[in-house]
User: Which sequence fits this backbone?
């Protein structure tokens, strides 16, 4: 059976253009454990072909409606059918619906509460002024920033790899096509199969996701726990979602800025002194005092893994400021500066 079901036949099946006998043949094969490798390969091929997914985001509801009609589902598939019986069958079928619908399904495949209650969790927290590198059970690596935390199971069980996160961190996720990696932050889910990206949740009612490599799906968790895709991001793209206004903005993000942060540096691009001060306070565990009239001045600068004194020297020269450090408190005073 395994030799007879080829990738070509599987593609014909998920497009609904195979013969009745071929359909029965494929469905029998997909219910077996031997099908895992073939499904992963087909998914990888499909994944690699996708450059953008704007249409998938726009048409998710339409595609999912077609999927429910085709398979006669009255509720989300993960709650209707058991994975070991027909989950792989639906997983393959979802490929034809577009990337947005694939991620819709992956978002629904979260670990059930009954399983979660028996799992031992680990929580890693960084206080102000501290950074760390956290290795997850699947060998994925998280570069965790100051005043940030991540919570994850001691062992990833089931069909997804799920973590909870708050703060700022860079994720380097091991690729597993059949086990999506899911980050939950402020009611937002970031879903990947294997990629690298950065998440930041410090700004009020705001979460930003920036992609260094691969593809990432961003969506929100509704009140009924359903997953609603918002966008699919590729290399060099950033999504900023306002949870209060429920609006998302997608723009370009220099990938090098993400890599600098990963290595312990910082890049400020046209940020206000108030925004820069907040970041420096977290990064170096200091308190920065500046006058109200100076908070809106904007500065661009880039730093490697340097001391706070080196940072303040550059900012002072760039902005025409004077600084003084006393007992972890930095006082910034104005000399001559033009407002932009």
Assistant:
């Amino acid at each position: 059976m395994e030799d007879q079901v080829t990738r070509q036949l599987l593609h014909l099946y998920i497009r609904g253009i195979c013969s009745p006998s071929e359909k029965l043949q494929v469905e029998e094969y997909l219910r077996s454990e031997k099908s895992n490798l073939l499904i992963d390969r087909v998914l990888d091929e499909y994944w690699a072909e996708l450059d953008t997914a704007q249409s998938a985001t726009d048409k998710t509801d339409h595609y999912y409606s077609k999927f429910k009609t085709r398979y006669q589902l009255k509720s989300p598939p993960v709650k209707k059918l058991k994975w070991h019986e027909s989950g792989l069958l639906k997983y393959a079928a979802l490929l034809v619906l577009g990337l947005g619908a694939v991620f819709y399904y992956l978002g629904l495949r979260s670990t059930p509460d009954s399983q979660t209650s028996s799992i031992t969790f680990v929580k890693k927290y960084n206080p102000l002024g501290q950074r760390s590198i956290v290795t997850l059970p699947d060998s994925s690596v998280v570069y965790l920033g100051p005043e940030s935390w991540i919570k994850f199971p001691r062992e990833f069980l089931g069909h997804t790899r799920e973590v909870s996160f708050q703060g700022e961190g860079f994720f380097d996720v091991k690729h597993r096509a059949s086990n999506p990696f899911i980050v939950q932050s402020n009611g937002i889910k970031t879903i990947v199969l294997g990629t690298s990206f950065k998440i930041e949740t410090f700004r009020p009612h705001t979460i930003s996701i920036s992609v260094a490599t691969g593809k990432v799906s961003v969506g929100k968790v509704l009140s009924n726990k359903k997953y609603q895709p918002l966008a699919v991001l590729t290399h060099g793209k950033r999504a900023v979602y306002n949870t209060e206004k429920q609006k998302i903005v997608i723009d370009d993000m220099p990938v090098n800025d993400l890599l600098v942060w990963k290595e312990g540096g910082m890049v400020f691009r046209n940020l206000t002194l108030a925004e820069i001060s907040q970041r420096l306070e977290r990064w170096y565990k200091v308190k920065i005092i500046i006058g109200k009239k100076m908070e809106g001045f904007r500065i661009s600068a880039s730093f490697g893994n340097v001391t706070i004194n080196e940072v303040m020297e550059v900012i002072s020269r760039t902005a025409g400021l004077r600084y003084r450090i006393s007992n972890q408190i930095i006082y910034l005073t104005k000399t001559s500066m033009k407002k932009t």
Summary: The domain at 265-334 is CATH 3.55.50.30 (Phage tail protein beta-alpha-beta fold). Residues 50-102 have pLDDT under 50 and may be disordered.
